[in-house]
């Protein structure tokens, strides 16, 4: 696309340093810091200054307090002929963003008009994507819908792009759900999106901002893969989001998948984070069941608590359990952890790093009389 110029007329390149194309006025501006510069001093050179590191910062600051006439002059020098090149410029993009923030609604509309037909490539460009996001915040709904239509056929490409995903997130946050037809293309792709570094963020924005009729099909699909997603480096964040922000029935469904799997998941690098979140977000009854599972010896007689105290990930889940457990169950859990802590400290130095935090938590829980008796008996035996 020929109009997506890489340079700025009469401006700098290479980070705003040496350039034989720099005007005498910009040279003076960069050299003469003592002079009190005003916007009117650089009229006729707005595009060049916008593409310069120091000039761009100057224009940004002045636009915040500029008169209507001054803004119009700046606007007219940029729009429409120089808009696209500045949008993609490392320094110029900030000037365009300021015009969206401080311009009149007519100016914002005209500025966005120059972007129409180019929304996809701008969304995929490092600096352009920032301007597209800013435009979405300030343009009117009908123009937002135009942006959406340009991206409709390419939404999955944008979602998986380092720059484009931010534009899709902004659309989901700011545009009325009935105009976001592209959300339909997420159906059938929920697992794929959840396990993608950018897709997982977009999916979370959907669950956060869209109404139930849009999110229900996505959630129903998500629930089919809960156990796998808990163990994924990106999917675990989506499951955590459901636990923290989801409807009670969705939270309960995730927690039901954890039951019977707590120890296994607590020992997993990513799923352990889900276990912690479940302990924090579960209602009283579900939390009680999850913690009870951690206290119940396995068929081989080994206590899950011992395993967790030794494990590099599960020990954090145990710490979380100690911070959220309540009432009689708290006494039971502390009563099982404390003697193991004493034994492990006495007979092994291998797990000392894991145990310091647990020990601090137990210091806040004075032992009951029964526990004190048990402690004196149990701690005499070495831990196998």
TrEMBL record:
<protein>
    <submittedName>
        <fullName>ARM repeat-containing protein</fullName>
    </submittedName>
</protein>
